[in-house]
């Protein structure tokens, strides 16, 4: 099968951590998501402007880890065909295609990626009722994208291209080294996944779309007024043309408010960016400097759950 148009979007990201209650409070009371369900110790959070049943799931664990990265595909037949192809390619499945029991149900397969992350691909998930956000509402409308770190980034990029059909649309370089690969799926959004060149396997950041630039700035300002450290921003990346403001959740994972990401048409050409040009990082020139504090936050701590399936 051809995987080029297999993945339609990013559905949700799951985190596990010791400080569950602090995380629940952060994502609901501060970040602006809505806790919609709890089942068997897993808490599910939706974005008000998204039809996805949930965009973040949280679970208590003694170790800090990214539990799952979930992507959507169009049909159950895609899930079955993907599972068959992955097994032929020697990819380790966590479970075969089956009915899913999380909010929204659906039909999906779970597997380990090259670095040992848990990846889920699902179809036929029932949408939730959602609403159009009002002007000025400074809460996430939907999940935008996630970025992962790998100490073997080119191999990880190659794996996502071959196994899940992602395509590299842009790379960022500095002094001859490639630091980031941005990858699209069948959705026209510039990227839904990126791979960073990092010292260890970890989540780089998870990004949430705001209604617009005004709501983005209101959200960044709201969190700062509440005493949350703005790690980097507010600015606007040349790559993807999206606004950025980075914070940390209660477990130390970096999360981003964003808005305005560019959309790709049917005809596009992969590009490169040189990070020695400050406009590549921030075309507005309004952000604080990209330095050690930002890099430390984006490197995160090593994922403690590699090649270990979560209990749920």
Structural summary, described in words:
This protein has 6 helices and 17 strands. The mean pLDDT is 97. The longest helix has 13 residues. The two termini are 29 Å apart. The protein has a 9-stranded mixed sheet with strand order 14-15-16-13-9-12-11-10-17. The protein has an 8-stranded mixed sheet with strand order 2-3-4-1-5-8-7-6, covered by helices on one side. It has 2 domains: 117 residues, 2,3-Dihydroxybiphenyl 1,2-Dioxygenase, domain 1; 158 residues, 2,3-Dihydroxybiphenyl 1,2-Dioxygenase, domain 1 (Roll), CATH 3.10.180. The chain has 312 residues and is an alpha/beta fold.
Number of strands: 17
Would you tell me the structural class of the helices and strands? alpha/beta
Strand order of the largest sheet: 14-15-16-13-9-12-11-10-17
Mean pLDDT: 97
Tell me the overall shape. Answer: globular
Poorly predicted tracts of residues: none
Task: Offer a few descriptive terms.
2,3-Dihydroxybiphenyl 1,2-Dioxygenase, domain 1; 20% helix; nine-stranded mixed β-sheet; globular; alpha/beta; 312 residues; eight-stranded mixed β-sheet
Describe the SSE topology.
Blueprint: E1 7-17, H1 20-30, E2 34-39, E3 42-46, E4 56-60, E5 65-73, H2 76-88, E6 93-99, E7 107-112, E8 118-123, E9 142-150, H3 153-164, E10 167-174, E11 177-184, E12 193-197, E13 202-209, H4 213-225, E14 232-236, E15 243-248, E16 254-259, E17 271-274, H5 278-281, H6 292-299
Parallel strand pairs: 1-4, 5-8, 9-12, 10-17, 13-16
Antiparallel strand pairs: 1-5, 2-3, 3-4, 6-7, 7-8, 9-13, 10-11, 11-12, 14-15, 15-16
């Amino acid at each position: 099968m051809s995987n080029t148009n297999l993945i339609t979007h990013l559905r949700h990201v799951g985190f596990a951590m010791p400080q569950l209650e602090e995380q629940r409070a952060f994502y609901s009371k501060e970040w602006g998501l809505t806790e919609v369900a709890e089942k068997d110790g897993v808490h599910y959070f939706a974005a008000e402007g998204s039809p996805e049943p949930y965009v973040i799931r949280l679970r208590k664990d003694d170790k800090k880890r990214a539990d799952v990265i979930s992507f959507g595909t169009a049909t159950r037949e895609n899930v079955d065909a993907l599972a068959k192809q992955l097994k032929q390619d020697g990819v380790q499945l966590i479970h075969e295609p089956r009915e899913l029991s999380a909010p929204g149900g659906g039909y999906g397969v779970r597997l380990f990626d090259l670095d040992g992350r848990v990846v889920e691909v699902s179809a036929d998930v029932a949408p939730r009722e959602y609403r159009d956000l009002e002007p000025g509402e400074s809460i996430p409308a939907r999940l935008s994208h996630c970025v992962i770190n790998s100490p073997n980034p080119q191999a990880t990029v190659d794996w996502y291209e071959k196994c899940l059909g992602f395509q590299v649309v842009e790379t960022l370089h500095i002094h001859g080294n490639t630091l980031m690969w941005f990858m699209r799926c069948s959705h026209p959004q510039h990227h839904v996944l990126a791979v960073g060149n990092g010292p260890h396997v970890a989540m780089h950041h998870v990004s949430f779309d705001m209604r617009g630039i005004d709501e983005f700035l209101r959200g960044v300002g709201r969190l700062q007024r509440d005493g949350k450290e703005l790690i980097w921003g507010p600015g606007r990346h040349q790559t993807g043309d999206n606004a950025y403001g980075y914070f940390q959740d209660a477990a130390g994972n970096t999360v981003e408010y964003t808005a305005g990401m560019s959309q790709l048409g049917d005809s596009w050409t992969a590009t490169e960016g040189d990070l020695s040009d400050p406009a590549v990082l921030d075309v507005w020139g309004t952000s604080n400097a990209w330095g050690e504090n930002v890099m430390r936050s984006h490197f995160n701590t090593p994922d403690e759950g590699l090649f270990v399936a979560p209990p749920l």
